[in-house]
Amino acid sequence: MDRYAVIGNPIAHSKSPRIHTLFAAQTRQALIYETLLGPIDAFVATVEAFRAAGGRGLNVTVPFKLEAFDFADRHTPRAQAAGAVNTLAFGPDGVLGDNTDGAGILRDITVNLGCPVRGRRVLLLGAGGAARGTILPLLEASPATLVIANRTAAKAHELAAEFAGSSHAGLIGCALAELAGLQFDVVINATSASLSDAVPDLPTGLYAHGSLAYDMMYGKGDTPFMTAARQQGASRSADGLGMLVEQAAESFLLWRGIRPTTAPVLAEMRASI
Ligand code: ATR
């Protein structure tokens, strides 16, 4: 059977094996998907051993997404833009590196949550790896504006400048305080603030009528960002579990050429957390 795995450190609690096993059963694909614990100083050796043992592809998570980028022989445009790889596909012509995170969040927002991005005002909070990975897919969805706001303003300016060349109008980088007086239809929290149960310090009045607040993090119940956003006027809020399932579906499509139906898998994952 074709072998796949998710490599990370730590990795034991990854939900990816369950998600991909459900995808495989649904699409009748004969494959095995496991976890692979990567020693911090031995990513390349671990990946090479997996590939030599017949592995066909890997998902890559913290802290190896940059090393995975360097490991790949070729990159998809979205991986190139993200500067990080979460999906490796081993083929006869080498190792392809892809990044499905941005496509995953876009699909969760636009399809699962039924919230259009085209022509809307979008705010991306954060300027780290998680934010960077979503910028190209967001821009390709043609929002009216995309504002990248970060606690450290310089990093937001740098990111916006980097993507400005892609000729998309309305791309701005700024500090969180500079958001005062602006309104958005979609607000995405790509900061790591939730890891410490914190929320970004935002001016009031950001949320337009009918707006969606989206947290890339997820957990049991609402995240602190979701709760704060609704208190500040967001009409709806969602966590990142749908993004997790959708980025997995996009990886599955790359490897197997077939897109699984995500709704039943997302429902099962939701019930299990
Ligand atoms: P990741 O790869 O998850 O994006 P990262 O590269 O460390 O992680 O980036 C973390 C992001 O969350 C940064 O944009 C960080 O802001 P700074 O650049 O100012 O450090 C942001 N962040 C973390 N904690 C935050 C908090 N409490 N409030 C606002 N932003 C926060």
What is the annotated CATH architecture of the largest domain? 3-Layer(aba) Sandwich
- Which secondary-structure class do the elements indicate? alpha/beta
The bound ligands are: 2'-monophosphoadenosine-5'-diphosphate
How would you describe the shape? globular
Proportion of beta-strand residues:
15-25%
Strand order of the largest sheet: 2-1-3-5-6-4
End-to-end Cα distance: 29 Å
- The percent range for helix content is 25-40%
Q: How many β-strand stretches?
A: 12
Helices, strands, pairings?
Layout: E1 2-8, H1 16-27, E2 31-37, H2 43-52, E3 55-60, H3 65-71, E4 74-75, H4 77-82, E5 87-91, E6 94-98, H5 101-112, E7 121-125, H6 129-140, E8 145-150, H7 153-164, E9 171-175, E10 184-189, E11 207-215, H8 224-231, E12 236-238, H9 241-256, H10 263-272
Parallel strand pairs: 1-2, 1-3, 4-6, 7-8, 7-10, 8-9, 10-11, 11-12
Antiparallel strand pairs: 3-5, 5-6
Helix pairs in contact: 1-9, 5-6, 5-9
Bound molecules: 2'-monophosphoadenosine-5'-diphosphate (ATR).
The site of 2'-monophosphoadenosine-5'-diphosphate (ATR) has 15 residues, from α6.
